[in-house]
Amino acid sequence: xxxxxxxxxxxxxxxxxxxxxxRAWTAFRESPVTFPLAGYAIGGLAGLALFVPAxxxxxxxxxxxxxxxxxxxxxxxGLADLGDALVxxxxxxxxxxxxxxxxxxxxxxxxxxxxxxxLASAAVxxxxxxxxxxxxxxxxxxxxxxxxxxxxxxxxxxHEGMAATLTAESSPRDLVLPxxxxxxxxxxxxxxxxxxxxxxxxxVSVTVVFRVARRRLGGVNGDVxxxxxxxxxxxxxxxGVIAWTQL
Length: 247
Description:
12 helices; mainly alpha
């Protein structure tokens, strides 16, 4: 069952060809702990790009390209949809309708541009010290995935769909195990506390996304999950870089 759940997590969170079937999906949505577990592997794989022998800006570009080749663009698409929805005036229902609209608006363009630019600029600093950078990439990825676990355990879906199938299976008490599993990521830059700062800051950013989604949309949906993942990753990386260089 645990292996099926992990396979479901990799199928949902990455483009790694692990196969898709109902058993793996069911096991995954009943196991929030698989989010941070997958985060360790995704972070480790993504961070390998930092060791490419090239100038730092080039390494940063390779990291961003490799990250999205590895994880796909489903989650960043969620950020784009959320960006469009949040700039719309009106009720929560109106904003939820915008989420379903396939038209790309200014909010989406700005959100994605800011995110990718921020991700690349963080990666330039990570490339200066690849070993420390790898630790921060792992911590950031685990933080983002713990954030997704948090949404699963405490969020309320706005409608029937992917988010509803995830949130219906878990409650706040189910967040304990994912948190315990994520804590070792804080030691990824030991003895320096930068990874711990990264882990905590990314999770804080998810709580902000959650509060905004609850107030502006009435709850969470698949786009909120994707946006939270992307925002937490980049916030955690920048927080980690700041901690690494300033503490």
